[in-house]
């Protein structure tokens, strides 16, 4: 397999010779055999050899090879009850990432998200001690000759809970080690969004000391938010928010204002169209806003109002299905924070100090209550019928139905789902104006009058041989008419005529 792929890249597939293509196909077949063997028999003696061979394949440039290797790892993660083989896979991935100096693709890191971890680091320490005492107890029984109890324990064929929790704690330790290495030493890596996604998922399992280090590293990474790709920046914000809202983060008593301000600044990049290239950016944005304002109660209502104004600004530049998701999110905010209903009133009748500053990147000083949600009025005239009606319902404080949460609306009206590339539902034909018929009848009368005049002019003033071809005109026309044609074809001379005396 390695020999067939050596020195070859996926971009060169079109220019490869027939022999090189056969080598690639043979390598794909070999990877398929290794992957299926690992999926079916991950507990046999030589499974470690399969893992060592498949880990580099999970980082291959060829999608067909990479997908098969990653799928086999994910299958093992889901079906391995004892987590022993899963731990060996994570160890090999960790050593491979370190060997490649963290220059790996995000796919091999994203396979680790399938790991069903349930044990925190504190529980892992307790399970490690219990597993150690159980091993001593079994060793003592074997030394005392009590082989019956040991045999019965082995015949039960049940996974030892303490051993499983200990292995899961070791897996969590390896995962955190992989993530922190890339965060601290390789922020340039293209696997950074996948690393931050993994930290956001497993942040509730890590202990308090690692949580403090994680928040420090995230703040260092987010200092370069303008240079950082938008998916990585959003994942970093989401990771920080989930870490602070987890069981360990609540004990730290740290304000999440720094992450909220960064999220407020990142919204401008959505309006500039930067998120169109990556489809994962917008769902991450929805998760960030929900984590900040819906999963907990925000004390500073001005901050929520600033986000409402900026989200409406972003919705003007998004496709209809994403704008619907934002409006669903805003409905939930309007119902959760009753003071936000002032934004749905006219700003002329409201007493407020100062003016709304949309150019300020601090939501606490934008003064949003000096304005109103005029952007919502623009969305009521949108070409998409569902978006227009939903915007009108949002302005009227209509309740949100259970099937109208943000993600459900986005999936239901996605024009790119199923490769239809059509608005869902279709845009209806606007009703005809009564004046249109009158204008059309007047135009028909004028057209009939002009056609009669044109026919009369063609009948009375016309060339009798106009419908005949040029050769027929020259041969069958009269001599006088041919002489006239010759005079017409002669080129005019710019010189003045000179008359002889």
TrEMBL record:
Give the residue ranges for region: Disordered. 125-145, 427-455
| Listed InterPro entries | ARM-type_fold, CCAAT-binding_factor, Nucleolar_cplx-assoc_3
Basic residues compositional bias: what residue ranges? 129-140
One matching Pfam family: CBF
Q: Domain named CCAAT-binding factor: which ranges? A: 255-391
> What's an example Gene Ontology biological process for this entry?
DNA replication initiation
SUPFAM superfamilies tied to this protein: ARM repeat
Q: Which GO terms describe its cellular component?
A: nucleolus
Any single GO molecular-function term of the entry would be: chromatin binding
Q: Which family would the database say this protein is a member of?
A: Belongs to the CBF/MAK21 family.
Q: This chain belongs to which protein, by name?
A: CBF/Mak21 family
Q: Which organism is it from?
A: Phytophthora infestans
């Amino acid at each position: 397999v390695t020999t067939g792929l050596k020195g070859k890249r996926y971009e060169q597939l079109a220019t490869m010779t027939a022999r090189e293509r056969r080598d690639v196909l043979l390598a794909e077949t070999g990877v398929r055999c290794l992957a299926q063997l690992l999926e079916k028999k991950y507990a046999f003696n030589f499974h470690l050899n399969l893992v060592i061979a498949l880990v580099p394949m999970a980082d291959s440039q060829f999608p067909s090879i990479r997908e098969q290797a990653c799928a086999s790892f994910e299958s093992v993660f889901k079906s391995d009850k004892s987590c022993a083989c899963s731990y060996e896979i994570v160890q090999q991935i960790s050593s491979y990432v370190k060997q490649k100096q963290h220059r790996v693709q995000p796919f091999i890191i994203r396979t680790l998200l399938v790991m069903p971890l349930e044990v925190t680091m504190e529980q892992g320490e307790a399970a490690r001690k219990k597993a150690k005492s159980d091993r001593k107890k079994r060793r003592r029984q074997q030394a005392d000759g009590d082989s019956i109890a040991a045999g019965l324990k082995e015949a039960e064929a049940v996974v030892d809970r303490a051993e499983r929790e200990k292995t899961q704690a070791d897996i969590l330790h390896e995962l955190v080690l992989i993530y922190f290495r890339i965060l601290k030493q390789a922020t340039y890596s293209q696997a950074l969004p996948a690393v931050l996604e993994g930290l956001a998922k497993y942040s509730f399992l890590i202990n308090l000391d690692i949580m403090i280090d994680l928040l420090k590293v995230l703040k260092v990474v987010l200092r370069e938010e303008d240079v950082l790709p938008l998916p990585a920046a959003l994942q970093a914000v989401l990771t920080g928010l989930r870490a602070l809202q987890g069981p360990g983060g609540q004990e730290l008593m740290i304000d999440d204002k720094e992450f909220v301000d960064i999220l407020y600044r990142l919204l401008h990049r959505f309006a500039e169209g930067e998120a169109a290239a990556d489809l994962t950016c917008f769902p991450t944005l929805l998760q960030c806003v929900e984590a900040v304002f819906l999963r907990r109660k925000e004390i500073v209502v001005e901050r929520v109002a600033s986000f409402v104004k900026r989200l409406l600004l972003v919705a003007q530049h998004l496709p209809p299905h994403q704008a619907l998701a934002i409006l669903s999110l805003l409905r939930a905010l309007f119902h959760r924070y009753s003071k936000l209903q002032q934004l749905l009133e006219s700003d002329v009748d409201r007493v407020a100090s100062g003016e709304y500053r949309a150019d300020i990147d601090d939501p606490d000083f934008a003064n949003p209550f000096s304005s109103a949600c005029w952007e919502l009025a623009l969305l009521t005239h949108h070409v998409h019928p569902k978006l227009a009606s939903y915007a009108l319902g949002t302005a009227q404080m209509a309740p949100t139905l259970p099937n109208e949460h943000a993600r459900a609306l986005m999936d239901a009206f996605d024009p790119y789902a199923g490769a239809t590339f059509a608005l869902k539902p279709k845009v209806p034909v606007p009703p005809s104006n009564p004046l249109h018929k009158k204008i059309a009848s007047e135009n028909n009368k004028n057209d009939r009058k002009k056609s009669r005049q044109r026919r009369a002019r063609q009948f009375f003033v016309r060339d009798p041989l106009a419908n005949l071809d040029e050769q027929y005109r020259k041969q069958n026309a009269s001599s006088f008419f041919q002489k006239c044609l010759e005079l017409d074809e002669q080129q005019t001379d710019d010189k003045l005529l000179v008359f002889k005396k």
